[in-house]
Structures are given as structure tokens and as C-alpha cells.
Amino acid sequence: MDYMPYVWIAVMVIMAIFEGVTTQLVSVWFVCGALAAAVVSFFVPVFAVQFGVFVGVSLLLLLVTKPLVKKAREVKPEPTNADRNIGKIAVVTQEINNTAGTGQVKLGGNTWTARTVNDEVIPEGAEVTVKEISGVKLMVALA
Fold first, then answer.
1. How far apart, in whole angstroms, are the C-alpha atoms of residue 9 and residue 35?
2. CA angle at residue 38 from 34 to 44, to 5 degrees?
3. Domains of the chain
4. Which residue in 41, 57, 88, 137 is a FRET match for 26, CA 20 to 30 A apart?
């Protein structure tokens, strides 16, 4: 079985190519497992041992690094200047009616499209609190 190091190197190359073609981390652990199995195959000619090293190293690396990779890939929302308006009081300049798709408020000298968070109708002139921003709309509730 002196050809086994070549088999494991071939597995490693195939997995590396597969990893390079995909945009997700799906086979990098198998590349490392195949490398470990190739090294072991120089010293231990038993295929079962080599395969056990391949599976063990691959699983160990997967279990150790997957949470780190997942955490690094999380998309965190970027705060914008508009976020500073959350919690502020605005004055309704056009009746807010989610069903009719109407509603505007005046906040800090700017006019914003507004919708209510609980589908209530809010009359013109009422004061509302900004609860969140959804796209370019303020989501509000009575103050």
C-alpha cells in the first residue's frame, strides 16, 4: 500500500479545488484531514487507521472552527444617522392609516413617511414616538 500517500494527496487536491469553486466553507476541513491521513500513511500502512485519522481530524476541525466561522460571517446591521431618531417625538402632518397607506410626520424639520407599529389610525396633529425605521418609513406609536 505504498500508493496510499498519493491517494490521500489526490483527495486533498480534489477537496481544495472543490473549496475554491464554492463560496462557502464546505470542504476545507477535509483538506486538512486528507493531509493528516497522507502523513500517517507514510508510517502506518493500515487503511482503517488512515481513514480514522482523516475522519477524526476533519470532524475535530469542523467542530472547533464552525462556530468561529459562523460568528465571523454574521452580518451586523450598520447604524445610520437616521437611527438617532428612534425614541424621538414627531408630529403627525397627515393622518397615519396603514390600511390606506397614508401618513406623514414632521421630525427635526424633515417630513417622513410614517406607519404605525400596531395598525391604529392616528389623526393629524397628534404626537407620536418613533419606534423603528423600516426602509425610508418611520414606524411610530402614540406618544
1. 7
2. 130
3. 4-73 (no CATH), 81-142 (2.40.50.140)
4. 41
